[in-house]
Design brief:
heterodimer; A: alpha/beta; 8-stranded antiparallel β-sheet; about 25% helix; B: about 270 residues; alpha/beta; 8-stranded parallel β-barrel; 11 strands; globular
Chain lengths: ~400, ~270
């Protein structure tokens, strides 16, 4: 049985490398054009090539999003771009506009095709259509139950990818142009201004519905950590984490957590206790509540996000390990958020079991003893008897 | 010359509308369409007697549980006087092919997903000859599509544009959350000056724009094959239909939607 793929977002090369380091099997990235996150940094062609080379050396994969819904002028340069992606040997393109498949086929380009969730493929017939058109994989609509996903997999026999974590569109993907209407930014070409997260007054005819809580279309984020086993069992090929614009810390934490959960499941070690712990880790890194949405039941009032814009920025990321001085038992880190002597913190990383410790002695770069770490990017040395490794992360204890 | 196609606000308006000087009528099919203020049973659609072109709307995103119904609907429509089906989900196309439907024409109506020459060419290469063109591109872009494809185009010239379509019951969920009962009335959401119609149906929650009215642009739209007047949530229709039929411009300023407003997608370099 082929092991399920853990697919990570990567907004830049740094995050891509971190995602692979922390356990992703594949990363999806956007180029500078044709990608649905127009305002992310995105990758130049040189960076895409570097990403592919880096991934392939690790026997991992890179998928490139070409998932805008094209308008006439957007086709300028697309063939040349696709040819370059073919030469670079990207592992697949994620596409939402079928006209791009036609260009790929007409020009006999050797490119694997994944159909984006933007197309909202929600039934056996449409998935079969894309299989016959030559797609290798379909990213299903986010509105499907477990039974619906299983039926599609069983009946069509194609790779199926589903989301497991991150922010959700409250509309069917591709069927929302609120951003176009309110801000003139084209949602289907990567300009989405997230109008679904705005607050609105609700009126019954001309009468305001009185409430302290405003109407919003926003829904809570997705978290499928409690259903990993079921997702593997029904034959999903790839589990996708949303968030090409998320931070290094978010990517490392979420990927590391799902990596462990998946590996635990395959080795029969995914106990309820572990799931609860992973859930706690994921809840801590998120700045919004998360639920399961359509997979196990139809979304009810508790899946709506009616709390207003109370999203808090996460300050759990305390530092990134740069090196470990084995002679003096010192972890050399770069600081990210405030912490001080006496704090109990924990370290996690791709090659260590997560452990906690109490910050005792720490020094600045000139070896002066310090009691607080309050300068972002400051180089700090922390006395730590247990060995840690480059790119391990120090965070607030879960 | 462009044909005038009307999507009614209520089923009871249909008898009156088909007596007006129009060319066709859009009939939203119960259980398989979204975004209408009424839905008709297949029986009522088939039994509707008119010499106007009957066009059935089947624009729901299909789930597997819908496919058996969809098959039986396609077979029945093939044996009826319905001329066209406006569809969103490609399962309609695949089943249409599988069932060898040949008495009804397909109109690809994917709202915001089909808005270029190339994508229309793609659907045309599948044998689809009609396209209900996206509401979020400009007139010039629509014209480019018309001039560079073989598609015959439908285009909304009057009515509310669909801005948002969710599978979720967003109104019910919110009202339940604030312990308020949902009433049998029209709902609107408001943010600053924008007041938008929101409607919750059995299969979706939808949000619509202000009413687009292109009557004063009508002389620029001769290239459109089917001008659609969509009266969803709009009570008065007779005068509007007459004005479009007779190309009666007036002095008023109307909301034009994206007719001449090009959207952007890169906020920064």
């Amino acid at each position: 049985m082929k092991k399920i793929e853990l697919l990570s977002p990567a907004g830049d090369l740094n995050r891509l490398k971190l995602a692979f380091l922390y356990g992703a099997d594949a990363c999806y990235i956007g180029g500078r054009d044709y990608s649905l996150r127009a305002n992310a940094n995105n990758f130049s062609l040189e960076e895409i090539e570097e990403a592919c080379n880096f991934a392939h050396k690790l026997n991992k994969k890179v998928y490139v999003t070409v998932n805008i819904v094209f308008q006439n002028e957007d086709y300028d340069g697309i063939l040349e771009y696709l040819k370059k992606l073919e030469r670079i040997k990207v592992d697949a393109l994620i596409i939402s506009d079928p006209s791009i498949i036609k260009i790929i086929k007409d020009n006999k380009l050797n490119l694997n095709i994944h159909i984006s969730t933007q197309f909202s493929s929600a039934n056996t017939e449409v998935v079969k259509f894309f299989k016959e058109l030559g797609a290798e994989r379909v990213v299903l609509a986010r509105e499907l139950s477990k039974e619906e996903i299983k039926e599609i997999i069983d009946k069509v026999g194609i790779e199926v990818e589903t989301f497991i974590h991150g922010a959700m569109c409250s509309s069917y993907s591709g069927r929302c142009i609120l951003s176009n209407y309110f801000t003139n930014r084209d949602a289907n070409r990567g300009g989405c201004a997230q109008i679904c997260r705005w607050d609105f007054d609700l009126y019954e005819e001309d009468v305001l519905v009185e409430s302290d809580i405003k109407f919003t279309m926003a829904c809570k984020d997705l978290s499928m950590i409690e259903h990993i086993g079921e997702m593997i069992d029904i034959g999903i090929s790839s589990l996708k984490v949303e968030g090409r614009m998320r931070s290094n810390y978010y990517v490392a934490t979420v990927i590391n957590t799902y990596r462990k959960a998946i590996d635990d499941y395959y080795s029969n070690n995914l106990t309820n206790e572990r799931i609860n712990y992973y859930k706690k880790v994921l809840d801590k890194v998120a700045n919004r509540d998360s639920v399961c949405h359509f997979f196990d039941k139809f979304p009810d009032k508790d899946t709506g996000y009616f709390l207003g814009r109370q999203e808090v920025s996460n300050q759990d990321f305390l530092g990134l390990v740069l090196d470990y001085d084995e002679n003096n038992n010192l972890a050399i880190i770069t600081q990210r958020n405030y912490f001080k002597k006496g704090d109990v913190v924990e370290v996690f990383g791709p090659n260590i079991e997560t452990f906690s410790f109490k910050v005792d002695k720490m020094y600045d770069e000139e070896d002066n003893l310090i009691e607080i770490a309050n300068h972002p990017e400051q180089i700090i040395k922390i006395k730590l008897d247990k060995k840690v490794y480059k790119d391990d992360i120090i965070r607030v204890k879960i | 010359m462009s044909k005038i196609i009307v999507k009614p606000n209520k089923e009871k308006d249909i008898e009156r509308i088909i007596k007006l000087d129009i060319d066709g009528i859009i009939l939203p099919l119960k259980d398989l369409s979204v975004g209408s203020s009424f839905f008709m049973s297949l029986e009522n659609i088939i039994n509707l007697k008119t010499n106007k072109e009957k066009i059935v709307l089947i624009n729901k995103i299909m789930h597997n549980k819908d496919l058996e119904l969809l098959k039986s609907v396609l077979i029945e429509l093939n044996n009826s006087d319905v001329k066209k089906i406006i569809f969103y989900d490609l399962s309609v196309y695949t089943l249409y092919k599988e069932l060898n439907i040949n008495n009804v024409e397909l109109v690809i109506g994917q709202e915001h997903l089909n808005r270029s020459i190339n994508s229309n060419d793609f659907y045309n290469s599948l044998g689809i000859k009609y396209s209900y063109i996206s509401s979020d591109i400009t007139k010039d872009e629509v014209k480019e599509i018309k001039e560079n494809t073989k598609m015959k185009l439908f285009f909304t010239v009057y009515g509310r544009l669909q801005l948002f379509c969710s599978r979720r019951y967003l109104l019910s969920n919110y009202l339940e959350y604030i312990n308020t009962n949902k009433k049998n009335c029209d709902y609107y959401i408001k943010n600053n000056d924008d007041k938008l119609y929101i409607s919750e149906e059995d299969n979706a929650t939808l949000i619509y724009s202000d009413v687009v009215n292109l009557i004063n642009k009508i002389h620029e739209l001769d290239f459109i094959d089917y001008l659609v007047l969509d009266f969803n949530n709009i009570k008065e229709y007779e005068e509007i239909i007459k004005k479009f039929k007779n190309k009666c411009k007036d002095e008023k300023e109307y909301y034009l939607g994206f007719y001449d407003i090009k959207t952007i997608y890169k906020v920064k370099k």
